[in-house]
Amino acid sequence: MLLGSSVFPGQSADQLIWIDGRWSGYRWFRWAPIWLRITIFCCYGLLQRLLVVQFTALENCHAFDDISLAILDGATKRIAFIDPNAPAPAPQPPLAYPKGKLMMDAIMIKPKLSGTYKVSGKVTEAEHPFTYLEGTANGPNKWGLIKPEWRACDAGKLQSPIDLVHEKVQICPTLGNLERDYKPAVAKLRNRGHDISLQWEGDAGKLTINGTQYNLLQCHWHSPSEHTLNGKRYDMELHVVHKNPQEQIAVIGMLFEFGPPDTFLQKMIPYVKGIGEEGIDLGIINPGEIIFGGRKYYRYIGSLTVPPCTEGVTWTVMKKIRTVSREQVKALSAAVPEGFKVNSRPTQELDGRPVFFYNSDGEFQ
Ligand SMILES: [Zn+2]
């Protein structure tokens, strides 16, 4: 027993011998004043704790792909387990990593609407397979029951949007800055019934995540926002949708609050009123003009926020809150039928998923 009992009051000699064993290489420590022993002991513990926390965080960051795949794999099995007896037509489409046409439909969200939907090129209040009206037969809580291929909306464990809670994120400086390489391309503005969407035709550039390239497809607007920050819902959310050759989707979400108008959205506003599903050609639109407003972002694995709620979407939600005018949001809302004036899905359970936060200096703020 070489460490003073005043350093570890109440501990037995055996315990202290063990502690001494760990520190036996530092014989000078035995003769250091008590205040120095305490300081060294505390600093050592604190440093060790910081190193473990930091190392764990970095390890998680490096393993982001592995985590994502494990989550996806687990979720797919859970869905199969949760709903083994659900009536489903044969062949049953997969719920995660769907290939080919299913995913293409999911991305382009071509609502399979009846001919009554379009009248003189305008979108009307005709029947729609789903709505955002809570408490109705085809409202958000019923989406998973409307069609077998939509059951991920109900039984999925990787659903979006979510509430992004500051205290629960893992700060991950190794995720890196968003690598966007967009280019001007011909685009068409369409009214998809449930939202207004700008769809690029041809090569509009790409987003690179973990070395994987996702081609820019389209963007669309939700109001109010779908993701919330610490429970707060903002006034609008822009989704910029990308897809890689393996049919995997990556979406960047940007949150807006009422204030000065958004310059990119303003280019669409004159055309929003009266457009139909077939859309209107806007000529060349430069996606590089979408202002991201910062480099900090949240990252998690989620889903499409409309049916079929396809899972496996790599989500990036920018931390910076930008501004949109009330008139701009009103124009978007006025163009879609009842049931879609408010087109935000309620937030979904996190179900244990990790949410990462990127900031180059490793700080949250
Ligand atoms: Zn969306």
Automatic annotation (TrEMBL):
Cofactor(s) required for function per UniProt: Zn(2+)
Organism domain of life: Eukaryota
Keywords for this protein: Lyase, Metal-binding, Zinc
Ranges of residues in domain Alpha-carbonic anhydrase: 128-359
Keyword presence, Metal-binding: yes
A Pfam family matched in the record: Carb_anhydrase
Catalyzed reaction equations: hydrogencarbonate + H(+) = CO2 + H2O
EC class: lyase
PROSITE patterns reported in the protein's UniProt record: ALPHA_CA_1, ALPHA_CA_2
Gene3D superfamilies: Alpha carbonic anhydrase (3.10.200.10)
UniProt GO molecular function: carbonate dehydratase activity; zinc ion binding
EC number(s) recorded for this UniProt protein: 4.2.1.1
Function: Reversible hydration of carbon dioxide.
UniProt family annotation: Belongs to the alpha-carbonic anhydrase family.
Name of this chain's protein: Carbonic anhydrase
Lineage of source species: Eukaryota, Viridiplantae, Streptophyta, Embryophyta, Tracheophyta
